[in-house]
């Protein structure tokens, strides 16, 4: 009982520190808030996970990135402005965000995280690093390399994967490339893009968590035929198919990129990468709709018994997101 209350307390503080940081400009205070959220997330990991090696691995990665950030900021204060120091801060933030080529740690840890903590790691834990990144001017050559790697590596790493947690982690890395490009353009639209992605991810993870799914087990769920189509809707929304809500967000982002002639080649690469991601998402769902006819007694939670569940998911996916887009 006390452990559950402690976990909720840590989670509430993590969310509070994260959103409070959006009103702060000072980099040292931002770094402090970033470390507080990491500490609270590690506390939640220690409560929910049995694999202590993965917790220690996550701790080492975060300590390394945090040390590079604070060392660079202190050096930057003492030695005036230095371009290499700015470069090291950006690299450290890339490591915290799990952006290629520093992405190796997040898929490994994702396999052992429960769905609720994975949701936090892929959404809330990225807010402060993205916000810190938006306060720096990124070199064009560096941003090109980062975005190309973030667009190309995740789709090819997702081929033949059956672990849903790893698939969603690579999907998050791919979506990060769009947000980084919006940040590079100094557009506030990256916040709306992040909010769209967070809403869709929450909807998906909620269903996966209720069904205790860690693998691509759609073929085990024939009795949940309505749920299959709802989940299909959510994943196709994540793939940015029209007329679903996330399509409009990407369409507006592309509209912004087109007017920047320096980004046309990058934009073409990202669009081809998105097509590959669409193929992967479609291949992920094809078995559930047309091939297998098995059943399982392992799954006890029937979503159809919850009449509020279906309208809630449709509202989040199709209605609420366009409202945010208009705002």
TrEMBL record:
Topology versus the membrane: Multi-pass membrane protein
Domain NADH:quinone oxidoreductase/Mrp antiporter transmembrane: 65-276
InterPro entries: Complex_I_Subunit_2 (IPR050175), NADH_UbQ_OxRdtase_chain2 (IPR003917), ND/Mrp_TM (IPR001750)
Pfam families per UniProt: Proton_antipo_M (PF00361)
Subcellular localization, as worded in the UniProt entry: Mitochondrion inner membrane
Enzyme class: translocase
Enzyme Commission number, as recorded: 7.1.1.2
Recorded GO MF terms: NADH dehydrogenase (ubiquinone) activity
GO cellular component term of the entry, any: mitochondrial inner membrane
Function description: Core subunit of the mitochondrial membrane respiratory chain NADH dehydrogenase (Complex I) that is believed to belong to the minimal assembly required for catalysis. Complex I functions in the transfer of electrons from NADH to the respiratory chain. The immediate electron acceptor for the enzyme is believed to be ubiquinone.
Descriptive protein name: NADH-ubiquinone oxidoreductase chain 2
Species per Swiss-Prot/TrEMBL record: Wasmannia auropunctata (Little fire ant)
